[in-house]
Amino acid sequence: MIKAVIVDVDDTLCLTEATSFDLENEVLAEMGRPPMSRELHLANWGEPLLEAMPRRSPGLDLERFLPLFHSTMRRHIAEGRLDVIPPENLEALDRLVLSGRTVMLLTSRAEVELRHMLEPDHVLAGRISGAWHRDNTRHGKPDPRAFDELLAHTGLSPAQCVYVGDSPGDAVAAGGAGIAFIACLQSGVRRLDEFDSRYVTASVDKFPQVVEAVETLSRIPG
Fold it and tell me: Other CB atoms closer than 10 Å to residue 110's CB: what's the count?
């Protein structure tokens, strides 16, 4: 029985790669640096920002980049350009909650990059019961130990959980932890054949299809 649905944020709950690409290049331009290519951005999409940016823009001064990034990010959020969760995805979360399941987030983002989504007036309030990120977990994806704090805090077993994500690293982390994994392919950033099939329990083309996928997994004896 699936009791908890753990959801990735970027390109799973909301589509963010393309908007993040524009945001990061806007900051690079403000710093007088050349833009990165889309191919370079996609090559390490899903990695923590501080690990990815030195390869996206070699020689980048991270101490100067970060405050500019965060201020630009806040402006993009205020303008409705970043972290927009489609109504149909919110409805899917509601259906999961109404079915008696707990919904939580697990992301590679830092807390400062996620904070606005955890505010009491955000659309996720009342829909998610917790969020795990780079600053409250000791290990990040694709390490299976990325789920350690979540499992310890909730008392759930891996068999009671399913993780929904968009990257092969998400699948490796979940599978290594003994957690069922649903690949969400809506963003088009990844293809199913890029995933290790040993770790993919199910796949969906659109996030709302997760509801039925979870129901199907719950009916499987085990």
Answer: 16
Indicate the pTM of the whole model. 0.92
pLDDT in tens, 30-52: 999 999 999 999 999 988 899 99
CB 174 within 8 A of CB 12: no
Distance CA 172, CA 161 (A): 15
**Same structural domain for residues 122 and 139?**
yes
CATH code of the domain in which 48 resides: 1.10.150
Q: Is the Cβ–Cβ distance between 46 and 10 less than 8 Å?
A: yes
Q: 35: domain range?
A: 17-78
State phi, psi for 26 to the nearest 5 degrees: -65, -40
Enter the tokens of residue 129: 């019961």
Q: Which structure tokens are listed for 203?
A: 């796949």
Helices (H), 155-207: 168-176
